[in-house]
Design a protein that fits this description.
alpha/beta, 5-stranded parallel β-sheet, 40% helix, globular
């Protein structure tokens, strides 16, 4: 089995020990890098990893225990829902934000039912995602 190498954060000082630790999960390399960059640009956030698959997401969650996980809901074979369930089974306080191409739809509803904390459409990420990550 091949696991793509995770993108690791450039661990620079964020000026506080209370940086919000974020894990990004997206099957699309361009989107994954965009999420990583968006998080890295926030002075109060730290990227703990950026991975491509549901399996990598669960593994990285267990290893890093991020404060927020950004989960691509369009992973093949509804793998995102399985990953959300596995993460929530290990940590019922996990904050998972589902990312989808479309405004509220069936995938959005399934993700919330599986335990996602919130969902957001990918076309509004630059405007809404940083604030959503910061929301307690």
């Amino acid at each position: 089995m091949f696991l793509s190498p995770p993108v690791t954060a450039n661990l620079r000082s964020v000026g506080t020990n209370n940086a919000i630790r974020v894990l990004a999960v997206d099957h699309n390399p361009l989107m994954r890098e965009g999420l990583a960059l968006l998080v890295r640009l926030q002075p109060d956030m730290q990227l703990v990893g950026a991975v491509a698959t549901a399996e990598e997401a669960v593994h990285m969650y267990i290893e890093q225990r991020p404060d927020v996980t950004l989960m691509d809901l369009e992973l093949p074979s509804e793998a995102a829902l399985g990953a959300i369930r596995k993460i929530r089974a290990r940590d019922n306080r996990a904050r998972i934000i589902g990312l989808t191409t479309y405004e509220p739809d069936a995938a959005w509803a399934r993700a919330l039912a599986a335990g996602a904390w919130q969902c957001v459409a990918k076309d509004s990420l630059s405007d809404s995602l940083p604030g959503l990550i910061r929301t307690p």
